UniProtKB/TrEMBL annotation:
InterPro entries: B-phosphoglucomutase_hydrolase, Beta-PGM, Beta-PGM-like, HAD-like_sf, HAD-SF_hydro_IA, HAD_2, HAD_sf, PGP-like_dom2. Its EC number is 5.4.2.6. The gene is pgmB. Mg(2+) binds at residues 8, 10, 168-169. Binds 2 magnesium ions per subunit. This is Beta-phosphoglucomutase. Substrate binds at residues 8-10, 24, 43-48, 51, 75, 113-117, 144.
Amino acid sequence: TIKAFIFDLDGVIVDTAVYHFKAWKKLANTLGFDFTEAQNEQLKGISRIDSLNLILGWGGVEKTAKEVQELATLKNQWYVEMINKMTAQEILPGVQSLLSSLKSAGIKCALGSASKNASLILERTGLTSFFDVIVDGNEVSVSKPNPEVFLKGAQLLQVAPQQCVVFEDALAGIEAAKNADMRVIGIGEESILKNADWVLPNLEGQSAAQILNKLEK
Ligand code: B16
Ligand code: MG
């Protein structure tokens, strides 16, 4: 039986990808090349440093390890300026009511995000108190598709991986959940998120009881 839900942040709870896009584009333009929405798509679920290394490769730019760190810090300053202004209005449809339905269904709740800014985003949007456990980019050493982020969540919640369901919008995250031997619900397009157990366009109208019912069939 399912005992815990583990949520990805960007793309499931809020759409911070638009802010990542603006900040990465500004950085790329500063370095003399462009950065497209399609490229931004490929960075979903990928850590900050791995993202930057991909972008520098696309731009054909070589930097020392020290310069890469400085550029990552600069991008993050721009990004944090934007997410500091986030409010509860930016929570994606259905998220609050699904989170509110977890307690009465006896389901524990964890965040499993690659972002080092996850706590700030949850604070700004007023969602912190819904989560029993927060595992983010500050606690993990390897990026999704490695299962570390989700396995840590299960461990801290004291449930087995097989008792967890992950909600994920990124291919790397769906692979991470599968690698953790967890069930996974893809949020987005079915044609893209092929390996998920099932795919929803968003969380609108979903309650914990409904999801459990469907998973146990
Ligand atoms: P930060 P998620 C991920 O969040 C984003 O999808 C990805 O685009 C970003 O590079 C990564 O967090 C790191 O974010 O720079 O804030 O540490 O989808 O795993 O919640
Ligand atoms: Mg995501």
